[in-house]
Design a protein that fits this description.
five-stranded mixed sheet; elongated; four-stranded antiparallel sheet; 185 residues; 4 helices; Jelly Rolls; alpha+beta; binds calcium ion
């Protein structure tokens, strides 16, 4: 019983997978998105972090698998002159849509952050590019046909946790196990 509780607690408390991912150019479109996060994916909760690089007119696309109820958080952090350079813009797209599900320009300094509770299971794409004046930051073309002068390294962290309901269910189950254990003593 004790071991079961420890295993359950570990599943609740720990990040299952953690790896430093990188990018392979070209990854400037949804069609050429890097699958590194996609391939590393394990059962949530999990998190990964990558140190990536923007060059002039560059964008970076990463494919990720989400199931209904998965809560995605992605954050970019500029390294050159933190937290402002390079100035990033980030968006989340599904497999076919040309309008972002969510997008953000500045969240921490000029870095970006997005959060989304998946309402449909499927493949999604995190897109990061450099800020430029004008343009529509929710549009796929802002990322796939980027024109900007934001150059330099940035950190991208990606985490996925289960929906709150399943976390509550797991917590209730743990409380039940502990109560059962106390009664048996
Ligand atoms: Ca790129
Ligand atoms: Ca920004």
């Amino acid at each position: 019983m004790k071991r079961l509780v420890i295993v359950a607690l570990s599943a609740l408390m720990c990040v299952n997978a953690f790896a430093l991912f990188s990018e392979t150019e070209p990854n400037n479109t949804r069609a050429t998105a890097n699958t590194v996060i996609y391939n590393l994916r394990s059962t949530p909760p999990f998190a990964d972090v990558g140190v990536l690089n923007l060059t002039q007119n560059d964008s970076d696309f990463f494919k990720i698998r989400l199931e209904v109820g998965d809560y995605l958080t992605a954050i970019t952090y500029p390294i050159n002159n933190p937290p402002n350079d390079p100035d990033t813009v980030m968006a989340l797209f599904d497999a076919t849509g040309t309008t972002a599900i969510v997008f953000n320009d500045d969240a921490n300094g000029l870095g970006s952050a997005i959060r989304w509770l998946a309402t449909a299971s499927g493949d999604y794409y995190i897109a990061v590019t450099g800020w430029r004046p004008g343009g529509t930051q929710s549009s796929l073309s802002y990322y796939e046909s980027a024109t900007h002068n934001e150059v330099g390294p940035y950190i991208l962290t990606v985490s996925v946790v289960p929906e709150p309901a399943s976390m509550i269910a797991l917590g209730t189950g743990l409380a039940g196990l502990l109560a059962l254990r106390r009664r048996r003593k």
